[in-house]
Structure formats: C-alpha cells, structure tokens
Design goal:
Oligomer: single chain
Number of helices: 13
Strand content: 15-25%
Helix content: 25-40%
Distance between the termini: 60 Å
Amino acid sequence: MPKVFPRVGRRRVVQGAAATVVALGLLMWWLLPLGEAPPTGTITFSTGTLRGVYQEYGERLRTELSHDMPGLKVNLVQSAGSYENVQRVATGRADFTIAAADAVETYKLHGGRNAERMRGVARLYDDYVQLVVARDSGITSVTQLRHKRVAIGLPDSGVRLIAGRVLRAAGIDPAKDITPIADGIDTGPDRLRQGRIDAFFWSGGLPTKGLLDLAGKFGFRFVPIDSALVGKLHSESEAAHYYRATNMPESAYPSVQRGTTVATIAVSNLLMTREDMDPRLTEWVTRTVIKSRDDIGAHVHSAQLVDLRTAIYTDPLPLQEGARRYYRSVKP
C-alpha cells in the first residue's frame, strides 16, 4: 500500500509562502548595492587634456558608473588641468573632478570663490613631475634650463603651478630666465620631437599615455629633480608642503629609463566635489571608485594605487558627507 501523507492545511501553505517571500525580499535587499535603487540624473565631470591621465581615468570611471548607476548620465568636460578643475567644482561648473592637492591648497590660499564648499571624495594616486628633454640634449639639471625654450604647462593647470615653483626653487625666473611655452601633454611631446622646444614639464600619473606614445617614435630622457629642491619648495608656499621627494620607478617607461630610477617630486591627487552635492549620489560614486580599482587599473596603471586604507585622507579637503558614509559602512 502506498504511504499516505497527511494533508497540509491551506492556512499553513499560505503562511509558508508568505515566509518565503519575506526571506527572498530580505535576501534581495541585502544583495542590492547599498540596499537601495541607484541614483539617477546628470552630473558633469571635469577631466584634463587629451593624452593625459585625468582624461583617460575619467573615461574609464564613466563606464564603471554607468554599470552601477544606469540612470546616471555623466558628461565629461576637458580642462587645462588641476587648477581649472578646482575652479569649476568650487563655482558649480562641474560636479566632480580630479585635482592635485597643491592646486586645491593654492586655490584656498588665494581666497578662491566658494573654496569653503569644496569637499574630498577619495585620495586616488600620485602625480610625478616629469621633466623631459631629447635624448641627445645637453640639459642634465633644472638649472640648465636657463635661456631655454621650456613648456611649463597650460594656464590654470597643475603643471604650470609646479613647474613655476620648481624653476624658482632652482633660481630661475619663469618670466625672465626662460622662454616659457604654454604646452601641455597634448602638444608638448610633438613640439619636442620637432625641435620647437628644448624641454617640457609634465606632472601626471605613471605612465602617461602621451609619453608612452612619444617613446615609440622619438628618443627622450628625463632630467632628475634633486631632492634638495624640495626643502626650498616647502619654504616658498604652504601649498608646496604637499610635494615630497621620491623616485620615479624604473618600470614607468622601461624603454626610456633602461633600468634606472629618476629623482623627482610627487603630489597626491584627490577626487573632489562640493559640500552641497547629494550625499547619496556621492556615496555611490565613492563605492564605484573603490570597487572598480582593478578594472580601471587594467588600462590606467595609476588607478591600481587606489586603496581603501588611504582613500579617506583627502587633506586639505574634509570628506563629503556621502563619502564619509561609505567609508563608515565598510570600516572593519
């Protein structure tokens, strides 16, 4: 005889189904990022010049943001670099940007409009000052730039800020002792290759696409920036305290450096926004920046250095409330 199972009452079936629905609902809530629907709308992200790291990082980050927040439109706007980026965010012409810490501090020291509204989202990676000359150039130190044609970066760029400070620390007046040229990483490499300038300054993550491209068609080398200059830089301005002496690793541009490091200066980059930016949106942006490190880093080497343990240190900017929420949520 087949075994007869007891009949389950209708009420018990309904109760069991309801419990299952609740359990699935709780599970889905837990699996959803931040436990809520993604933010929507439109934001403007100010990047940098073509062939620079800011531009490439911005493009890659926009792709990652679109994965996490399909309803968010991200408009990328090119800029001269750090200082213009700071101005744009502070005055509401952009919502998010990347800028070097010295440019942020310079804007604050100059009494820039709405400087008190600026907020940090994450510390990203370091910029390295890269002073480039032709391989057969006789220039071997910063002091030998005197009377030369030197590209010092675009107006309102972070390159222009740091190049001017390095030159002055070496006893060179950028306005009188050199022929200053307003070239950035988008035009400087070609002008050097064509012999139209003798040297150019660049400050960016390692490696920078514009210099990788140049290495494939023109022989160049880096002029070391002696660590002794850092002390002189620190005495010039409070903003210069964000510079530190370091070495550019030999792996940055292998075909150029040929196994040697280069003495130089580094400064940290910050992802920044404003105090009045929607905290929920900022929290989601922060999350995407941290979790997409490896995906972006596969294309933008500098991004591999983004780290949750150091991202919270956005000095000289306090953290934006949304970023603070995210870091608190993942604190061990």
